[in-house]
Amino acid sequence: MKYRCWVVDDEIAAHKGLSMAFSDYKDFIMCAHYYSIDELPEQQPKNVDVIFLDIEMPRADGFSLFELWQNPLPLVVFVTAYNRYALKAFKYNAFDYLLKPLEKDMVEQLVENLRQRLLEKQAFTQQTKFKSMIEQFNITPNSQAISLQTDEGLFRVKIKDIFYLEAVGDFVAVYFNDKSLLTRSTLKGLVLELNNEIFVQIHRSFVINTTKIIKIEKGRFGDGQVRLNNEQVLKVSRRYKHQILNVITK
Known about the structure:
The chain is an alpha/beta fold. It folds into two domains: 3-134, Rossmann fold; 145-248, CATH 2.40.50.1020. Helix content is 27%, strand content 31%. The chain is built from six helices and 15 strands. The chain is rod-shaped and about 90 Å long. The protein starts with a strand and ends with a helix. Residues 4-115 form the Response regulatory domain.
């Protein structure tokens, strides 16, 4: 994971000092350098994780950053030669407060703390996005779509587009006209989320969408097979033959 950092300080030496202090930590990239608050963009950026901020600068001090942008801000680390601003800095919810010149052990501790907090922020963001996605894809018995969790992500699909389901070990393969998705589930569990009036089980491994059937063929031993309108042919076992007959004769 790479973390994008900005340095805001009116002294060139401070920029060089921070770049040198973080040169051993390849996950922190000093990607932007500003020499006053006036140079910062008016709109709050989304591509910065940490801001190293001086306090005493010409025209505007470092605290004016909190008036320029709204919360939530990137993690702000004040880096200054004066300790008299420490209390005020933490009132502004600064992540940390370092005194110049920077000492190696202080930087090491700061890096450790930053990594932990940034990982926590990332985990919270992902959890929030996933929760929002789940709420957006909320499934009800009468819904016209269903959500399928796969290794590639969460897919929202229309129920009417499903041709058939196939049990594959601990997974279920969901087949469409020209593609398939593999989701961790059981046939029984997935059928409960579908419309039982059009989906029926024809074999211990198969559940089909009966609206896709174009032909049912009888077998010699009480079994049979169905042909779907995508030319797929599936076996109908004797155990489940009555279920499909009940549906198509309604």
